[in-house]
Amino acid sequence: MLTAYLSSLLVDKNSMDDLFQEVMIVAWRRLDDCDLSKPFGPWLRGIASRLVMAEHRRRKLTPSLLSDDVRVAISEQFGKIDSKASDTWQDRSAVLRECIDALPDDRKKIILQRYLEDQSAQDVATKNDLTIEACKKRLQRARSRLVQCLQTRGLLLGEVLSHE
């Protein structure tokens, strides 16, 4: 749903992929600010909306179709989708944890080091006696398997690109 939301706000696919990952990182870091008993989608889209607007300001773009009214209308439409059951952080994070646990041990380890422990790719490579290129390739393969698992479990739709 986040990918669909970002697609509705951005034209450039590369920007969408980058912002998707940035939203995930910000959400993880700000998880304490989220009311986990409520649907997770609206909170996540709020982060995405702010990051999209910051990206437009940074690039000095004036999106002609992205007025506040349009953003609100898009959010309201996604809100209707969010009204289904099983959209809480606990539900989604449980599925993500199951997908991470299903990874081979070496991939699981570097995913947890890189994203849970917030280590740089270089630090992960060094700690695992890998070249930076080999580490990035393992991370890419692990993220690809996570995407497949999450798609199979119905949490991701369509193609999601993952890169370091």
Topology, number of strands: 0
Q: Tell me, what's the shape?
A: globular
CATH architecture of the largest domain: Orthogonal Bundle
Q: Give the amount of beta strand, in percent.
A: under 5%
Radius of gyration: 17 Å
Show unreliable segments. 159-164
Order of helices and strands: HHHHHHHH
Distance between the termini: 21 Å
Give the number of helices: 8
CATH topology of the largest domain: Rna Polymerase Sigma Factor, Chain: A
The residue fraction in helices comes out at 55-70%
Main sheet, how many strands, which sense, barrel? Answer: none
Number of domains: 2
**Structural class per helix/strand content?**
mainly alpha
Average of the residue pLDDT scores:
79
CATH uppermost class of the largest domain = Mainly Alpha
User: What quaternary form is this?
Assistant: single chain
